[in-house]
Amino acid sequence: MKCKICETESFSVLYHGRIRTGGFGNLSDEKQTVFCCESCGAGFLPDAGFDYEDREYREAVDGAADVRLFQGLYDGEQVEKLTVTGSEGYRNAIIADIGCGGGSFLDFVSGVAGETIAVEPCESFQIKLAEKHNVYSYVREALVLWAGKVDLAVSFAVMEHVDDPLLFLQEIRQLIKPGGKVLISTPNYDDWLLKFLPDIYESFFYRQAHQWYFNGRSIQKLANYAGFKSVELVYKNRFDLSNTLHWLRDHRPTGIGKTETFTEMDCSYKSLLERSGKADFIYAWLTV
């Protein structure tokens, strides 16, 4: 076995056990091994069973491959993304969203952007996307018209699904104009809950739908291999202290805001995890 990012043949075991195959409580029958490349630090699941491009993936993760359902599930998450990106730089710009799903992010910025490019392989989404955006199944198709022209490309929680993350970023980089930027995001395997509650949280975190697992160091390595000049990491903890306490008590996810007693502590809790790189999610700004 050879790492697709750095071609190293030396691996350690990041996790061995049953993994999530859908929603909470759905676990694989057999134990699976997530390996960690000893050179670049990326985690890899060799036996990933889902095809991110297939309708089956959306049905397993979201319940159906339906644009309106997607928007209902994910429109609320765009606030955090816009907080990370800020509001500048969109007006009259060419914006691409790679693996855009039902297009929630592009819908929010399309009012000021000059052009919006939706890259999404799930065919059941493409008809609705084409009503507002330039639609392609793959980045390589978009390169024919948009190579070197895009001001900002985003790709939220997609990199962990693809077969070859190095090629994925290399193709995105070809879209970007000189001085343009890329913003990617992915779950963080340095998430402190993995160390604090390994017996109950690991089988939830590691999942069949994710072939790859990253932390800050491995994202930096990957971006450097892909030819980006600089990498700026932004850690975000999406879940509050209440969620952690309920994991301790109930051994299951319960959402946020379930225990109002600790609401005033949430800012300090999240800030500590984000400063230390132990938050559950990572955004990375990549500069061409």
Could you characterize the architecture of this molecule?
With 288 residues, this protein is α/β, with parallel strands linked by helices. Helix content is 35%, strand content 22%. It has twelve helices and eleven strands. A seven-stranded mixed sheet has the order 6-5-4-7-8-11-10. A four-stranded antiparallel sheet has the order 1-2-3-9, with no helix packed on it. α5 links the parallel β5 and β6. α6 runs parallel beside α7. The model has no long low-confidence stretch (mean pLDDT 93).
Index terms:
alpha/beta, 288 residues, 12 helices, 22% strand, globular, single chain
Write the layout of secondary structure elements.
Layout: E1 11-17, E2 32-37, E3 43-44, H1 55-62, H2 67-74, H3 78-85, E4 94-98, H4 104-109, E5 115-119, H5 123-129, E6 134-136, H6 139-146, E7 150-156, H7 165-175, E8 176-187, H8 192-196, H9 198-205, E9 212-213, H10 216-225, E10 230-236, H11 241-250, H12 266-276, E11 281-287
Parallel strand pairs: 4-5, 4-7, 5-6, 7-8
Antiparallel strand pairs: 1-2, 2-3, 3-9, 8-11, 10-11
Helix pairs in contact: 6-7
